[in-house]
Structures are given as structure tokens and as C-alpha cells.
Design a protein that fits this description.
Its EC number is 2.7.1.-. The chain is α+β, with helices and mostly antiparallel strands and 296 residues long. It has ten helices and 15 strands.
Length: 296
């Protein structure tokens, strides 16, 4: 008997999650002999539900939610020896993994895709003792973006993040980073460090044109300390993936690494859109680690 679990975050997608739940449930009940539906009420629920599903060896886990809820489910699955197939219906603000895999951003279309979906294996990033599938952001801009309120997100969507990011960029604050990427260790003064798994970062699908969800690498972009006059056009080029001709942006791809601050100062991180561990971070890519449903 085939068994699947559907995890729903009712608060994702401008409070519209409930509207699509019945449609998703009806679709999945036709695909599997039995479907268990679970709704999150607090942080950590999605991770716990997904982990229980993996331990019960269900065939598939599906989630309706934003990047944070998807991250929780991956964290519930990725550490297990048996990992169910994974499907998701994007309901949040950026939905980077969905963009990278070609999954429709319209929830109704994403649900309609499932009965004919194909499957593919994708990489998962490991950061300290946790996992991520999108991006780690470090620096003054991510610090500011973390302060975006739920009310701002509901009213302005992704534009709320842009506003806070631009405010932070004007302050010109930088940090002295020490990085180890595979066998290479170096220090660099920088304002922003991104470590991503796919080409889509923060809703911008051109930021890392070289990155693919199944290429077996983590991708690092570092914005060096520069003047405000140079920074704003540089940020625009960065968002378009047009940084090959500038010395102010560093790009590296790697499989294992560490990111730390050289000075003894506390610096937090943003992991898949939510607050993560303070530095230092130990990073690793887990190649082809989970199987996901994608458009056929």
C-alpha cells in the first residue's frame, strides 16, 4: 500500500494556504492509497512531521509552504538513511528551489502538475548540524533583511526585502572574513557573502547562472568592500549575474568549506530565509541527496 504525507503551513503565501489544501489533498489521494494530512501550528512542526514520515518509511512527503517550511521538511528528511521522495507546492515569497526546478509558482498549477510529474535527484547543503536547499546569506544586508516583519511581507511581498537590503547597503558596513573552500584558505574584507545551491537566489534567477541543483557543488559569491558609488551599480550587475568583468565580486564553487570572521565579533547568518547559526560555519554539499517531484 502506497502511503504519503502532506504537510501544510496555513500561514504561507499571503495567508492563502488553506484555499489550496483541499485541492492538493484531492489530487494526492488519487496518486496514493493513503494520504495523511498534517498542518503546522508553530516553528519546528514541519521538521518533526517530515522526520516522523521518514522514520515510518512513507513513500513520499509533500509540503505546501514557503522556503522556510520547505527547509524544515528537508531538515526532517536529510539526516535519515531512508529519505522519502519529496514534493512541494510553493506558497511563499521567493521560492528559489521552485524557480530552479521549473515548478510552477501558481499553487493551482503546481498541484495540477503532480500526477504527471517526473522525479530527479538534487543536492542538499549541510551547514554545521543542519541542512539547507537554497542559500546562506552573511553580512549587513542579510542582517537587515532578517528584520522584515510578517506585516511587511504580507503587504509588499519580496519588495520588502529589497527595501531593507538597500537601506543596509547605504551603511557600507563590512567584515573581515576567513574562508576555507576545499583546499584553499584566504581572508577577505567583504560586505556580503552568499553560499547557494542553485541559480535562483532571493527570487533572482540570474544571480548564479553557473549553478544547478544537481551539479554537486556549493557556490559562493562574495561582494568585496567598496564605495557606495560603486556598490549600487555593482549590486544591479550581481543580481543579473553579470560580474565576470569586475574585481569587486569573488565567485568560487566548492564541496566542503568553512566561513568565519577574523575578528572576535558576533555575526549571524540567514539560512533559507530564516535566522541561522552565528559564524563560524562548516559547510558541505551532499550530492544527489534527495529525490524531488518536478515537471515532466
Amino acid at each position: 500500500m502506497s502511503l504519503a504525507v502532506l504537510i501544510i503551513n496555513p500561514s504561507s503565501g499571503n495567508e492563502e494556504g488553506e484555499q489550496y489544501a483541499l485541492n492538493a489533498q484531492a489530487t494526492l489521494e488519487k496518486m496514493f492509497d493513503k494520504l495523511i494530512v498534517k498542518k503546522t501550528e508553530k516553528a519546528g512542526d514541519a521538521k518533526r512531521f517530515a522526520n516522523e514520515a521518514a522514520k515510518d518509511r512513507v513513500e513520499a512527503v509533500f509540503v505546501m509552504g514557503g522556503d522556510g517550511t520547505i527547509n524544515e521538511c528537508v531538515n526532517g528528511i536529510a539526516g535519515e538513511a531512508y529519505r522519502p521522495d519529496f514534493g512541494f507546492i510553493p506558497m511563499g515569497t521567493a521560492n528559489d528551489l521552485g524557480h530552479a526546478l521549473g515548478i510552477p509558482m501558481d499553487p493551482a498549477e503546481a498541484i495540477a502538475m503532480l500526477p504527471t510529474a517526473a522525479k530527479c535527484k538534487i543536492d542538499v547543503g549541510k551547514v554545521n548540524d543542519d541542512y539547507f536547499i537554497d542559500v546562506i546569506a552573511i553580512g549587513s544586508i542579510p542582517e537587515a533583511v532578517q528584520n522584515v516583519s510578517t506585516e511587511q511581507k504580507t503587504k509588499l511581498g519580496f519588495f520588502a526585502y529589497i527595501l531593507e537590503g538597500l537601506k543596509a547597503a547605504k551603511k557600507n558596513k563590512s567584515y573581515s572574513f576567513k574562508l576555507t573552500l576545499d583546499e584553499k584558505t584566504f581572508s577577505q574584507e567583504a560586505e556580503l557573502v552568499l553560499v547557494a545551491l542553485t541559480n535562483s537566489v532571493g527570487g533572482f534567477s540570474s544571480l548564479l547562472p553557473e549553478a544547478k541543483a544537481d551539479d554537486g557543488y556549493l557556490h559562493l559569491v562574495l561582494l568585496k568592500k567598496t564605495s557606495l558609488l560603486k556598490k549600487l551599480p555593482l549590486l544591479l550587475k550581481l543580481l543579473k549575474g553579470e560580474t565576470n568583468d569586475t574585481r569587486d565580486v569573488l565567485y568560487e564553487r566548492f564541496k566542503t568549506g568553512q566561513v568565519a570572521v577574523s575578528k572576535k565579533e558576533k555575526l549571524g547568518t540567514n539560512i533559507d530565509g530564516d535566522p541561522g547559526d552565528d559564524l563560524p560555519l562548516t559547510l558541505e554539499v551532499l550530492a544527489s541527496h534527495i529525490t524531488v517531484f518536478v515537471p515532466s
